[in-house]
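TEACHING EXERCISE
Course module: macromolecular assemblies
Task: Read the component lines below, then compare them to the predicted structure of the full complex.
Student: A.B.
Group: 4
Components provided:
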Amino acid sequence: MYKIQLDTFEGPLDLLLFFIKRDELDIYDIPISYITKEFMTYFRLMEKLDLETAGDFILMASTLMQIKARMLLPKEVDDKGDEIDPRMDLVNALLEYKRYKEMSEELSIFESQQRRIKYRGNFVADEKRNPDELSTLLKNISVYDLVKAFKKAIEDKPEEPIHQVRKFNVTIEEQISHILDKTDFGREVSFLELIDGMFEKIRIVVTFVALLELIKMGRIGLRESTEFNDFVLYGLADG
Amino acid sequence: MDNIYKSIIEALIFSSDEPIPAQEIIRAIKEIDGEDVAITPKNIEDTVDQLNEEFANDEKSFSIIRVANGFAFATKQEYAKYVGFLSSVKSHRRLSHAALETLSIIAYKQPITKPEIEAIRGVNSDYMLTTLLEKRLITIKGRAETVGRPLLYVTTDEFLKYFGLYKITDLPKPREVEEIMQDADFLEQKRQIMMNQMDEVIENEIENNESSSDENDQDQ
Amino acid sequence: MDNIYKSIIEALIFSSDEPIPAQEIIRAIKEIDGEDVAITPKNIEDTVDQLNEEFANDEKSFSIIRVANGFAFATKQEYAKYVGFLSSVKSHRRLSHAALETLSIIAYKQPITKPEIEAIRGVNSDYMLTTLLEKRLITIKGRAETVGRPLLYVTTDEFLKYFGLYKITDLPKPREVEEIMQDADFLEQKRQIMMNQMDEVIENEIENNESSSDENDQDQ
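Instructor-supplied answer key:
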């Protein structure tokens, strides 16, 4: 196994494309068990867990395992009676993603070229009139500028300064007690069950952090699942 | 030195954000081509004169002038009336800012009276209201029931059209605004803090995994 | 119209501090010389070509480029290392891969919502959108008619200017999926191959200068 820097990948799709290239896999016939195993290995070995994307990697892991499960079941057929390949959606997503990844490389070339030129620098000597309000007032102004101006106007309001502190509506402590509830008396719960119904990524991520915290504290244990889900957590006696 | 550096000197004067002093030009050239380049302020002066002569011969509409202890390109006087027609981006932005602020307050708080707008902005807003009315971005819709029955301002259909909105409630909501506006620094900080918290935990996790797993991890 | 307006067109482009569209040049000329002046966008185009030919013959360090729906004077690429030394361009870091990836999706699919962007990228894109909005490379334009009426994102003129594009349709098209499949090397690193060494030398120089020079953060 190659040691790779996970944070050089833009996301799970990028990582999957890497495997496909590295191992010269046929994208239309992806060996799903193999690639799932690779994916999970790298996921666990992430040197730095980037919080913005951890949730996305978890999501991809569950997608892969779902496909893996469906591959073992009798083939589903569509309206016309053709077999549905459970991998089809993933393949399409990979190809679509790759199109734009390629484009971003082209844009990057444009960027390099553009950085080598410089526009005329200063205009102190060219007298221009004051702008004609009615024609140039809102040139190149969009609703984004409008929102921004409003926010600033409200915040700068002299009488009652508003200080807004953004808080997560979920804490690690809360999720720790949530996990402990679920695994009380040695009960078991799979990670995917645990995060079932959590829609915000930040909540999943914080839950994951809480999980790691509990492992460190020796309050819960992890083991491989017999199912296709990645792992199962179980409660340990208070230590 | 003549021709080798003529174009470079021209490019430097052309692209400098401020009028550029001869010393600065010399510094830039030496930085790139080495300290031993023989080039003096006098050389720069002469090159500029030579360039200006060429611009005159070619009937260019611009030349290099000496201003604020440096060199700068300027369009010639005879084109002033045409150039004067252009508006400068800088003053245009300043004006836009006041207009935008007023407009955004009306958009989000409508219907709203002038005293209310001024309470938020902290400055007299007569001029801005007149301008926005003229531009048909806002209009008057009745009077408030409060003391003095001041006029009420609302945005117009033109306003919606300009900003590509279907109806006024399509404006980004305060919640969405927060989402959009979280400044990059804050997000980055947040990431850092959380990551530091986790690093240790994860490292233990990895070690455990490595020792317990049967994977062979050859680094390469 | 040729010679009478050549210098005026040159002067107008030269003194405009943002790319000036042909229509605006015509408007300025008509404003001063009268509505009956016969001058078309085609005339402007031809004049610009003629001027550029002259700049090339005279070995000028700058020429007129077509960018962001207009014309602007800019230095030629050969002078990159010298102007890079003093320019404020150097203080702008290159965009990250994630930013470029997000931008190319928005550029080709605009107007596009956040969920659509995230569906293609496979990752949460809040941070990227905030960053691109801050840099004014994208902006918000209305809402989609789909469930939840999410905000729509589009690219800006600043985007065109940043990448040196004249019109949005000048973007190269993304390759079709079938074409991608025919590649022997599925994921070739085109960018690295095409970025020549010169580029990297300049980037290094620019970075070195950045760290040694006093930062000037004027954005105008």
